[in-house]
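Fold these two proteins, one after the other.
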Amino acid sequence: MKKMMMLAAVVVVLGFTGEAAASSTGLRKITNIGCAVSDNTCWVEVAGAAAGPAGCSGNSLRWSMASTGGKNILSLLTGAFLAGKEVRFEVVDTACYAESPAYPTFHYINFN
């Protein structure tokens, strides 16, 4: 099971290498994480400076659990949150989260 989770994490991280412009947040502490029951939107709130494009810059990053790798991202971020690990987000510089455009979104994550 652990090997499968690790493989899924690698696929998620490497699968986004050709994505549009993004910028790194640097390592951030997760202060809150959750998902809505009304749709597939999940969020993670991070400490530090706001991230994302000017139209939706903030500390609450959104993604869809229904997207490819969405459930894996939720699992990885929940584990990092519970373990007190810091996470680096590659935030989309060119667009906001489509389902809730007041918030930034990201292409992928990695840990230190």
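Now the second one:
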Amino acid sequence: MRKSVPVCLLIVLLAVPALGADEAPKSPWSGSLGLSFLSTTGNSQTQSLGLDLGAKWVSDPWGLEFVGKFLRSSKGGTTDAERSFAGVRGTRSVSERWSLFAGFSGERDTFAGFDLRAVVEGGATYKFLLGPVHELAFDGGLTWTRENRVVGKDRSFLGGLLGATYKWTLSETAAFTEKLRLYPDFDQTSAWRITSESALKASLTGRLALQLGYDVRYSNRPVPGFRKTDTATTVSLVASL
């Protein structure tokens, strides 16, 4: 009986590390890559390419998020739309619902009238709904914007940021998201902007999903000679990284 006690202890000591190995720590990194492509030939010759990259790092209370977008379309061999965007935002949680943020973004869209629009932002986020079905958060803060325009004088000005981010989990494999942003211009009050990004995403496999997106960008006082509203509809294949 005495000999069996050391044997039992040895078995327990060997089993504990094995149990811990099954519970690997969750990686603080997550990301996704979306790709869309359309090409037609014959009576009409069109091509469009879309790329959407997202990466997020979370180590409570800190967080970091990167977003990159590229969209290009051509008709008859002539480019009629091209837009690129890259942005990074850092966050710091101060409670379950409140957090602070600071970020920087750069955007190029010559078909909307600017070679570069750089925005520095900072403010606070309040989580109104915490899920699991509905998630809703509001942003508020200040911005500094620099615009290098295709025509006319370049601009630098102080502005604001009011935003809402919403997620509706329809099922275990489907979700709807909406990201709405209002950018007031403190220098020219009539030159405010609104952006809206809507997406419906459905999982195909554990890592692949199909996504339908619709983006709207509205400028109440656009660059002279350009329209106020731009829209983009995309159907893309998204891979979780």
